[in-house]
Amino acid sequence: MFDLDRWNEIFETIRKNKLRTFLTGLSVASGIFILVVLLGIGEGMRNGIAREFEQDASNLIFVWPGVTSKEYKGLNPGRRIQMKNEDYNRILLEHSDKLDKTSSTYQVWSSVISYGKESGSYRMDGVFPDFQYLENMSLTAGRFINNNDIQNVEKSIVIGYQVKNDLFKEVDPVGKYVELSGINFKVVGVFTDPGGEREEARVVIPITTAQKALGGANNIGRLYLTLKPEDNFEAAVAASTAFSQDLDEFLKERHTISPDDNRAININNTLENAKRFYGLMDMIRLFFWGVGICTIIAGVVGVSNIMLIIVKERTREIGIRKALGAQPMSIVWMILHESIFVTAIAGFIGLIFSLTLLEFIGPAIETQFIYNPTVNFTVALNTVFILVLAGALAGFFPAWRAARIKPIIALRDE
Over the chain, what HEC string results? Predict the structure, then answer.
């Protein structure tokens, strides 16, 4: 039931102790503010990590050769490993039941490409059709490399969006011819890539054409593989880890590499990386929760201390109330109302400021590992309600102490 006199008492007490009430509310508001901002940053870090993994297939296994670092079977260290078509074909043959999308690639890191008077130096990848899905490319025009291009060694080329802007400006490039290393290629498509301009400043052609027309012979530079889906994330990680180990052993045996040489064959497993990163993010979020909660506890302790001071200051008043017949619970509610009011108002102020900060500044934060920091509104609101309960608990003990004061003792207080 709404009691106007009680609310007048609360506001009168606040007016008499403006600075004390302000500092108490500030400690509570800053606690909520810090907690919500930290939770927002934690979510932004998860978004940033997720965006990094979205650049390629989520379960990608990426293989590239290096240089041997150990002597093995009479072969000196320092050998540069060169993977061949036969490596890729054997992997497909032996693991066809496990593999989903696959592509080997042959790269030329700086190829001069020209159209009319425009020209530029771009990376060229000779690929299989699955490369589009492995690299998470999206077509904005035309089509991607297909099996017909591979089988017939077609001079087809798919250009990145940055290449299209550099060479063609506003002209539709599909159907036009560009010159790559002195050979004319027909543009069959334009792609975009989540990796941005760096990934879009390249072109792709059929790997068979790259090897035959550009001097690649039967050499390949990298392997891109994904496995068939599993029932859950843990099973997918286990299958991916096991396959990566088998792949490492196979390639080391094929190229006479020491089993404990970790530099000759490099395998990057995105599922393993994702598991490590998300595990780390869970620990960081737990740490943020801990820091925020400790800050809130400090504010609640401040509320409790202020309530103790208020009880001490109003001891004679409480004694008079009890002498006039006031019930203990009415004394308790008198103290609790002020505690809950200050805590609730300060908590909502901290919540509003933190959500406003994340709403307006959050979208502008776009670093490599922090992207669009946000916080679930329900979680934030529940946090404030928990804070109000904590404020009520903080005020209860001083209120209960006040309710137990005997009138004769309270009236003697100076």
Answer: CCCHHHHHHHHHHHHHCHHHHHHHHHHHHHHHHHHHHHHHHHHHHHHHHHHHHHCCCCCEEEEEECECCCCECCECCCCECCEEHHHHHHHHHHCCCCEEEEEEEEEEEEEEEEECCEEEEEEEEEECCCHHHHCCCEEEEECCCCHHHHHCCCCEEEEEHHHHHHHHCCCCCCCCEEEECCEEEEEEEEEECCCCHHHHCEEEEEHHHHHHHCCCCCEECEEEEEECCCCCHHHHHHHHHHHHHHHHHHHHHHCCCCCCCCCCEEEEEHHHHHHHHHHHHHHHHHHHHHHHHHHHHHHHHHHHHHHHHHHHHCHHHHHHHHHCCCCHHHHHHHHHHHHHHHHHHHHHHHHHHHHHHHHHHHHHCECCCCECCCCCHHHHHHHHHHHHHHHHHHHHHHHHHHHCCCHHHHHHCC
User: How confident is the chain (414 residues) per 10-residue block, as mean pLDDT?
Assistant: 61 71 77 81 72 59 92 91 94 91 92 91 94 91 95 95 93 94 93 88 95 87 88 77 91 93 89 66 74 72 69 65 66 71 81 83 69 74 75 70 63 54
Please indicate, yes or no, whether residues 141 and 195 belong to a single structural domain of this protein.
yes
Cα dist. 172→40, 115, 159, 167, 175 in Å? Answer: 42, 12, 12, 11, 8
Do 111 and 192 sit in the same domain of this protein?
Answer: yes
Question: Does 40 map to a domain?
Answer: yes
| Residue 112, domain extent | 98-220
In a domain, 62, yes or no: no
Q: CB under 8 Å to 132, separation ≥6 — which residues?
A: 139, 144, 145, 191
Would residue 111 count as lying in a domain? yes
pTM greater than 0.70 (yes/no)? no
Boundary of a domain, candidates 220, 236, 256: 220
User: What's the total number of domains in the chain?
Assistant: 2
Q: Are residues 401 and 305 in the same domain?
A: yes
Residue 129 lies in a domain: yes
| Whole-Å CA distances, 360 to 348, 356, 365 | 18, 6, 10
Q: Same structural domain for residues 164 and 109?
A: yes
